[in-house]
Amino acid sequence: MELKRYKEAVTSYNRTLKINPNDSDAWRGHGDAQAKLKRDTKAVNSYSQALKINPNDSDAWSSYGFSLYILGRYEEAVNSYDRALEIKPNDDEVWYNIARCYALQGNLEQATENLQRAIELNPQRRRAMAENDLDVVRIRYNERFQKLIQGINKEN
């Protein structure tokens, strides 16, 4: 994985999982390699296996959610991200990805609320991302979104 040789990584993880099919880290790594190869359905299956073994792995929940998001399964992705936040509540990336899912579903209120939380946790990075992210384009002209981006949101 570190060398970005993802096909070889998949092969390695397959060998590891043949020896120990209950290795949740290997399943997560297998999912990560599959995701890098744009094999998102396979990635979802690998993350699912990892989470059956270790349901307290916030990174696996987050990665699982991201693969579901890529597949356009936004509701499922949000559920997965919610599980990640139960374990690691201050993960700005997860909050941001939830906002993206809601924006793509046209749920502007939820998108903006989750974006606000992401920005609170990591203002510079999340504002910059939101300004250029096509997934949040639906809320771009929302007044509350504009305030968040400008950093002058005075709401609760």
Automatic annotation (TrEMBL):
The keyword Phosphoprotein does not apply. TPR repeats lie at residues 24-57, 58-91, 92-125. The keyword Repeat applies. It comes from the Bacteria. InterPro entries: TPR-like_helical_dom_sf (IPR011990), TPR_rpt (IPR019734), Ycf3/AcsC/BcsC/TPR_MFPF (IPR051685). Signal peptide: none annotated. Keywords: Repeat, TPR repeat. Transmembrane segments: none annotated. It holds the Pfam family TPR_19. NCBIfam families: TPR_END_plus. This is Tetratricopeptide repeat protein.
